[in-house]
UniProtKB/TrEMBL annotation, chain A:
PANTHER family: ABC TRANSPORTER SUBSTRATE-BINDING PROTEIN YESO-RELATED, ARABINOSE-BINDING PROTEIN-RELATED. Gene3D superfamilies: Periplasmic binding protein-like II. It comes from the Bacteria. It comes from Paenibacillus phytohabitans. Keywords: Signal. The keyword Signal applies. Residues 1-21 form the signal peptide. This is Extracellular solute-binding protein. InterPro entries: Bact_solute-bd_prot1, SBP.
Automatic annotation (TrEMBL), chain B:
This is ABC transporter permease subunit. It is a multi-pass membrane protein. It comes from the Bacteria. Belongs to the binding-protein-dependent transport system permease family. Residues 89-300 form the ABC transmembrane type-1 domain. It is found in: Cell membrane. It comes from Paenibacillus phytohabitans.
Length: 445, 320
């Protein structure tokens, strides 16, 4: 039938047009953004002239975290609404998985939430792209540690405020190790101790249980190792690739050994790990004994298996392996229509003692010194363990740096690809180094 | 395409050109008014962004800086100095080549079963169509991640038969396969179209052939497939277009990994556009995908004259 033929062609054409529309979607978003970048000044002006007294305002706020942090944050929002009935919130919270993707997409469409939680590593990019609003004068940072504030500053202006201070160390399954008769590590242990303990545990580990994750291609763990060996940052502050070839080969070969000896999980199991996910976190599942952790995360693991876990400093070598860093930042996005109210909320959130009592240490020990002292005075046992790691790392810990802008994708994509190739045995340490070096070229300035 | 225009011309000889156009404009004004809502939407939401993205593809547009016209530099970079482009295009082509035939075969197979007159058949149809209703969603992708994980149901199931499973979605050899399986599972709408096509085939063809002693197999290849070929043609084009744009499951289930084995083209485009904010470059990538899809569609339409059979085509000259 002729009809069939024509209507089919027509349907096929419609389908192709559908494709065009889908491709055009990118253009569409870009278009909105284009229009918006043309007029950021006007949004700003509108935000500052808007009257702030008593007018009902709904603030969108977005953060990542685990269940205890979600609950504490929601309680803080409720408290703020109780004190300021005109301000209500539309919270968007999730795990870390996919958080940056979601936020970046919203920001690209000029639709980012008013208040956003950002990782210190993203700060240089977000500030350079002018996606944030200056926080002064509404937000008072006089009680903050200068070192922590630096990560949220550009050209002398404060764009984001640090929420807490955390130490980078390791968490281990104390209960399992005691049961298997493996000695507990002590603060100040070295990388030699670490690898020796791995070898020692080999005979004691049952099938399907491993010493640690396959960190051969892990950006953060390798960073810690290179620091400890005195070779400095992996990416320098002025934006240069600085992986020390000898150190990198040494590190990856050591993990190659652990892999052949069955002390790290097989590649596919290793790749299925999702930090802090009750089902997919390999530490929580009892499959590995050690993994890296920040001092404030103990509470999350403890909520999965109470009393089982303990913290220890990142192993050291010539220098310390761990460091203190701001846990995360809170900022107001550029396109916020209620920037003033948002800043007032942030000021309350980081400075008010009442707020600190509610949010506790789920974002690290508060960066506000008064609040930190307040919480330290009556801290839970669990928080004291976290604080212990913080204090043990403090004296000679590495200096944390937000690093150069523009490298987020290098860490999130290129490094991850090499990590997979190493753990699946698809590339040798030498090839891995070469590949990283080549990939880095498109990011160097 | 060619044939259809000639048939049209034969059926209605063109009037003189000028009067033809005038009458086109005068008479159906009401018609244009009726389609105006669609037309405006199409122009504003599809055509305009579409051409804007073509324009962007020739610029270095990033979100935060003023853009500059850079000619074909984006395209040159993509084709000469972008290993990720080649890598992601390869994965996508593999995905299209594997998922499309499997999906069509599954849809046809199920449609043939469901075209039988059995009691309560409509409830079976509903049940089988159901996965397609929820198929494209994030929820199903998350479900998939759990089914094929190390501790997933799938491994528990095959453990019953003494086979030791692995983590299917985090293994570079099987990750793409699990995503293809998810696509195949969502055969519902394809299946419904097949089902409609099967109902159209006159029963007397089967009766006549069975009188002549044709086996079921012969009937399938000599009657069902040729009679169904226009439908197959349509479904093929739709499936190919859909497969090229695959994104959700790769993004949610595997996030392109492991080892980029599921890093499809749309994911690369997304990364350039929304995590690196290189919208000019991403627009160029989008246009390359569009050209590839059009090329695939044209290729299929071109070959269709060798295998698509229309009942009205007399003399069997198209029939092979």
């Amino acid at each position: 039938m002729l009809k069939w033929k024509r209507s089919l062609s027509l349907l096929a054409m419609t389908a192709i047009l559908g494709t065009l529309a889908a491709c055009g979607g990118g253009g569409n978003g870009a278009n909105n953004a284009g229009a918006a970048t043309a007029a950021p000044a006007s949004t700003d002006a509108a935000a500052t002239t808007a009257p702030s007294s008593g007018e009902p305002v709904k603030l969108r706020i977005m953060w990542w975290g685990s269940q205890p942090r979600h609950e504490a944050t929601l309680a803080a929002l409720d408290l703020y609404t109780k004190n300021h009935p005109n301000v209500t919130f539309e919270p968007e919270y999730s795990g870390m998985d996919g958080y940056l993707d979601k936020l970046s997409t919203q920001a690209a469409a000029n639709n980012a939430p008013d208040i956003v939680q950002l990782d210190p590593g993203w700060m240089p990019d977000w500030m350079a792209r002018k996606q944030l609003t200056e926080l002064a004068p509404e937000v008072d940072v006089s009680k903050f540690d200068e070192k922590l504030l630096a990560g949220g500053q550009l050209d002398g202006k404060q764009y984001a405020v640090p929420l807490g201070s955390v130490a980078f160390g390791m968490v281990y399954d104390k209960a399992a190790m005691d049961k298997l008769g493996i000695a507990n590590p002590a603060n100040g242990w070295t990388w030699d101790d670490f690898f020796a303990l791995a070898k020692e545990s080999q005979a004691k580990l049952p099938d399907g249980q491993y010493f640690t994750l396959d960190y051969a291609g892990n950006y953060f763990m390798y960073s810690a190792y290179q620091y400890a060996r005195g070779k400095g940052q992996v990416i320098t502050d002025d934006g240069h690739f600085n992986v020390d070839e000898a150190m990198y080969l040494e590190w990856t070969r050591k993990f190659e050994e652990l892999r052949t000896e069955g002390l790290v999980p097989p590649a596919d199991v290793n790749a299925s790990d999702k930090e802090n996910d009750p089902q997919m976190d390999l530490l929580a599942a009892g499959k590995v004994l050690f993994r890296y952790s920040f001092s404030n995360n103990l509470g999350t693991w403890d909520s999965i298996k109470p009393g089982a876990y303990a913290l220890v400093t990142m192993p050291r070598a010539e220098e310390a392996g761990g460091w203190l860093k701001p846990s995360m930042f809170l900022a107001v996005s550029k396109n916020s229509k209620h920037a003033e109210e948002a800043k007032k909320f942030i000021n309350w959130f980081v400075n008010d003692p009442e707020a600190a009592q509610v949010t506790q240490t789920f974002r690290g020990l508060p960066a506000n010194k008064d609040n930190a002292a307040l919480l330290e005075a009556n801290m839970s046992e669990l928080d004291k363990v976290g604080l212990g790691l913080l204090r043990a790392t403090e004296p000679d810990g590495q200096t944390w740096s937000a690093g150069a802008g523009g490298w987020t994708n290098f860490v999130d994509k290129d490094w991850v690809l090499v990590r997979d190739q190493l753990s699946f045995g698809k590339s040798t340490p030498e090839e891995a180094y070469k590949q990283l070096k080549e990939a880095a070229q498109s990011y160097e300035k | 395409m060619n044939r259809s225009t000639t048939t049209l011309a034969e059926a209605a000889p063109l009037p003189r050109k000028s009067s033809y156009f005038r009458s086109r404009w005068n008479a159906p004004l009401a018609g244009y008014l009726f389609i105006a809502p669609w037309l405006i939407g199409f122009l504003a939401l599809t055509a305009y962004p579409l051409f804007l993205s073509l324009y962007y593809s020739f610029t270095d547009y990033t979100l935060m800086q003023p853009m500059q016209w850079i000619g074909s530099r984006n395209y040159e970079r993509i084709f000469t100095a972008d290993p990720k482009f080649i890598q992601s295009a390869k994965v996508t082509v593999m995905y299209v080549l594997a998922s499309v035939p499997l999906k069509l075969a599954a849809a046809l197979f199920v449609a043939m079963i469901l075209s039988k007159a059995v009691r309560g058949i409509s409830s079976y149809r509903t049940a089988i169509y159901f996965p397609s209703l929820i198929g494209g969603s994030i929820g199903v992708s998350l479900l998939w991640r759990n089914i094929f994980g190390v501790e997933g149901i799938f491994n528990k199931l095959i453990a019953v038969f003494g086979i030791e499973g692995k983590s299917w979605i985090t293994n570079p050899d099987t990750a793409l396969g699990t995503l293809i399986l998810l696509t195949v599972w969502q055969f519902g709408s394809t299946m419904v179209i097949f089902l409609a096509g099967l109902k159209q085939i006159p029963n007397d063809l089967y009766e006549a052939s069975s009188v002549d002693g044709a086996s079921k197999r012969t009937q399938f290849f000599r009657i069902t497939l040729p009679m169904l070929s226009p439908i197959l043609y349509f479904n093929l084009i739709m499936a190919v277009i859909g497969a090229f744009q695959m994104f959700t499951s790769a993004f949610v289930i595997t996030n392109g990994g492991p080892m980029n084995s599921t890093y499809v083209y749309a994911m690369y485009l997304y990364e350039r556009a929304f995590s690196r904010y290189e919208l000019g470059y991403a627009s160029a990538l989008a246009w390359i995908m569009l050209v590839a899809i059009v090329a695939a569609t044209v290729l299929i339409s071109y070959t269709s004259k060798y295998w698509v059979f229309y009942e009205t085509d007399t003399g069997g000259k198209q029939r092979k």
